Amino acid sequence: MKKLITGAIAGALLLTSVSVFADSASLVGKKVQGLFTVEQNGKRIADAVIIDGTAYAPVRAVSEAAGVELKVEGKKILMLESKSETTVAESSPSPTATPSKTETDIIKEKARNIQIEINKQQTAGMDIYLKLINDKNNTELKEKYEQYDNSIKGLQEELKVLERQLTELQK
């Protein structure tokens, strides 16, 4: 029964958010070019639709998977910093000291933080992209969008380096 109620609430929120988003982003009548599954570590998180070459996925599902807290204020969805529950312990000669994180744990945490930053940059870039659709000749918006795009590419490269390091450590 609890799953049914949760499913009904999630469905209602999804349907409501899609109709509101469609009106505000002028995607009404646009052709859906594809449907993709969003996965994290092999686990299905949500489905994303592709419209005009851009993926649209449920913000709540993606943010929860990335460990980012969401807050809704009026017509704004705020992505808040995630709170790290663990910290790296300083080495100590005491035998009762809290064990420090392994190198793998540290790299995984860095990768999570980079993924959170990528999500933030993509959200901010999406806002600029949507404005740019309506004003294609605005050079200031084009420059801002390029900055976000370059920033995301740099973060993705950092993430690839960390993923390679993890692969090497796990061998």
Overview of the molecule:
The chain has 2 domains: 1-83, no CATH class; 86-171, no CATH class. It has helices at 2-24, 59-66, 103-134, 139-169, and strands spanning 32-40, 43-51, 54-56, 69-73, 76-80. The protein is built from 4 helices and 5 strands. Helix 3 runs antiparallel to helix 4 (139-169). It starts with a helix and ends with a helix. The protein is of the alpha+beta class and 171 residues long. Residues 16-24 and 84-99 have low confidence and may be disordered. A 3-stranded antiparallel sheet has the order 1-2-3.
TL;DR?
Residues 85-101 have a biased composition (Low complexity). Residues 1-22 form the signal peptide. The chain is of the alpha+beta class and 171 residues long.
- Summed over residues and divided by their number, the pLDDT gives a mean of 74
Task: Look at the helices and sheets and give the structural class.
Answer: alpha+beta
What's the total number of strands? 5
Integer tally of domains:
2
> Helix and strand succession?
HEEEHEEHH
Oligomerization status of the protein chains: single chain
Separate helix tally: 4
**How is the biggest beta sheet arranged?**
3 strands, antiparallel
Radius of gyration: 20 Å
User: How much β-strand is present in the residues?
Assistant: 15-25%
What would you call the shape?
Answer: globular
Which residues form runs of ≥5 with pLDDT under 50? Answer: 16-24, 84-99
Strand order of the largest sheet: 1-2-3
Head-to-tail CA distance between termini: 44 Å
Instruction: Provide the helix percentage.
Output: 40-55%
